[in-house]
Design brief:
The model has no long low-confidence stretch (mean pLDDT 97). The protein starts with 11 loop residues before the first helix and ends with a helix. Strands 2-9-8-7-6-3-4-5 form an eight-stranded mixed sheet, with helices on both faces. It contains 14 helices and 13 strands. 40% of the residues lie in helices and 14% in strands. The radius of gyration is 21 Å and the shape is globular. By secondary structure, the protein is of the alpha/beta class. Helix 2 runs antiparallel to helix 11, helix 3 packs parallel to helix 11 and helix 7 crosses helix 8.
């Protein structure tokens, strides 16, 4: 077996299961999980109808590049959403089976292990960035996301010697677990660094359509490129998904877009990888990318939950004002996130994810996720508000 498998750390939810082992929560309160970022809102009906209407196409092999109609629907959406003058559906867009699969596969295709192979990742982070790096023979460079920098990496704190060894930089905006949005000027600065030190910028933007201010959608990496007149999107790729936008996590549908040279190489890799999206799923995806009404309704539902939970928790817990995504990132009163998560489950039958499980020791050996918990506000409003009330009760009880 690949010896690099031994370098993989347990997934956060494995750690959480071990933390809760042997704990008997109160049986008179139903369990409310605020752990996994799996949307519980109804999936977009138009996608389900399109899926059903094309089931007979399961009899055909799909092409790795996807249907031209799907690539064009994706390109049309991206042009409108990010104000792009152009995005070539043929050469700059590639449908994928969700961002998780695509992010992992892209690192395998892109990383050159015959030279220094560092991959910069935000810290705390989505663990696929780290696992993909390790299995590709690379080394993660953890960029701490601390409160004093808006829970975003401080690019200027990275020394030139470190940048010279970096081949890929992952951006997650809106951020998981913090919800922080990377502004356009920081994206432009990162593009300048990519030119100076010759690395790829890979932007995970799967939460881009879940934002609280309808007049201020989060900017994207290709948008930053366009404002710089960089319409070839050189060195830049974005990853998008229908999982959060359209409540279709089980569809496993997304896309990668950007630099045509990177897309061509990745498409060649995927031809051998054998991961073409089935045709019924592609038709469902076309329907979802072409409709915005359901996405607006989705945002409205999350706004209502953020408002309710903020009103309940703000008096007893400190957290950054949410900008986007469906997460809250509160600090726990005593600073021990794992102990807090265990006692909350034991006393209130509510599950949360310790922030330290999503981070690694970074600057000065300190884990920037420690002392916080991630709350995924994915359930319906009533259940989410009830979980917040139990959480507040727990905090007040132990104050």
């Amino acid at each position: 077996m690949n010896p690099d498998l031994d370098a993989l750390q347990p997934y956060p939810f494995e750690k959480l299961a071990a933390l809760k082992a042997g704990v008997t929560p109160p049986a008179n309160r139903p369990h409310i999980p605020l752990t996994i970022g799996e949307p519980r809102h109804p999936p977009y009906a138009g996608a389900l109808e399109a899926l059903s209407a094309h089931l007979d196409e399961l009899a055909r092999y799909p092409a790795t590049a996807g249907l031209p109609e799907l690539r064009e629907a994706i390109a049309d959406w991206a042009r409108r959403r990010f104000g792009l003058e152009g995005l070539d559906a043929e050469g700059q867009v590639l449908p994928v089976n969700g961002t998780r699969e695509a992010i992992f596969a892209f690192v395998q295709a892109a990383l050159d292990r015959h030279r220094p192979a560092r991959v910069a990742v935000p810290n705390p982070f989505y663990q696929i960035y780290e696992g993909a790096t390790l299995l590709a023979g690379g080394t993660p460079l953890y960029l701490d996301c601390r409160a004093e920098h808006g829970f975003r990496p401080d690019l200027e704190a990275v020394p030139a010697d470190a940048w010279r060894e970096v081949q890929i930089v992952f951006v997650c905006s809106p951020g998981n677990p913090t919800g922080a949005v990377t502004p356009l000027d920081e994206l432009k600065r990162l593009i300048a660094l990519a030119d100076e030190f010759d690395f790829i910028v890979a932007a995970d933007e799967c939460y881009s359509e879940l934002y609280l201010d309808e007049s201020a959608p989060p900017p994207g990496l290709l948008q930053a490129c366009a404002e710089l007149g960089r319409h070839d999107y050189r060195r830049c790729l974005v990853f998008h998904s229908l999982s959060k936008r359209s409540n279709l996590p089980g569809l496993r549908s997304g896309f990668v877009a950007g630099d045509a040279g990177l897309i061509a190489a990745f498409r060649r890799y995927r031809t051998y990888h054998g991961c073409a999206m089935s045709l019924p799923l592609q038709h469902a995806s076309i329907a979802a990318w072409r409709d915005e009404a359901h996405v607006k309704a989705n945002r409205d539902a999350y706004r209502a939950k953020f408002a309710a939970v903020t009103e309940i928790l703000a008096p007893v817990m400190a957290f950054p004002a949410p900008e986007a995504s469906f997460y809250l990132w509160p600090a726990v009163p005593d600073g021990d996130d794992a102990a807090f998560a265990r006692s909350l489950f034991a006393e209130e039958h509510v599950s949360v994810l310790p922030g330290s499980y999503m981070g690694r020791p970074g600057e000065k050996g300190v884990n920037p996720g420690a002392g916080r918990i991630r709350l995924a506000l994915v359930d319906e409003l009533d259940a989410t508000a009830e979980a917040a009330r139990r959480l507040r009760r727990h905090v007040e009880r132990h104050a």
